[in-house]
Amino acid sequence: MKRHLSTESTSESARSLKKLCENLIQKHTPSPTSSIDPLIVEIDSYLKLDIVCDDVLEFWRVSGEKFCNLKRLTQIVLAIPATSTPSEQVFSTTGLILNAKRTMLAPENVGKIQVIHDNYDIFKKI
């Protein structure tokens, strides 16, 4: 079966493809909302700032009331330790707990031994 392509059939395909593309764009374009979300306004105003700040904590102390939602998010992010030292210590201690003679310890028991190890000073006073 031979298929003959003409310029009419290709232009028709191009038109239907263009129409399909326009319909998809229209379908997936967000509709304008009647009320403006205050969080979006806050983010836009923050992104429009042109500042150089050496002390991030001081910036958020000063600008906290203007960007109250972003300030809360910043407090969460800045509270994350920059190093992996605490997790490395946990793995190191767990490696000491689980040795060749203690491979059959239940996970909850390993956790209990880890708590005792980490809080030995407190348990020693009891």
From TrEMBL:
Q: Which organism is it from?
A: Adineta ricciae (Rotifer)
User: Under what name is this protein listed?
Assistant: HAT C-terminal dimerisation domain-containing protein
Q: Sorted alphabetically, which keywords does the UniProt record give?
A: Metal-binding, Nucleus, Zinc, Zinc-finger
State its location(s). Nucleus
Protein origin, superkingdom: Eukaryota
**What GO cellular component entries does it have?**
nucleus
Q: Which Pfam families match?
A: Dimer_Tnp_hAT (PF05699)
The family database entries (SUPFAM superfamilies) matched by this protein are listed as: Ribonuclease H-like (SSF53098)
Cross-referenced PANTHER family, in alphabetical order? ZINC FINGER BED DOMAIN-CONTAINING PROTEIN 39 (PTHR46481:SF10), ZINC FINGER BED DOMAIN-CONTAINING PROTEIN 4 (PTHR46481)
Molecular-function annotations in GO: protein dimerization activity; zinc ion binding
Which intervals hold domain HAT C-terminal dimerisation? Answer: 42-119
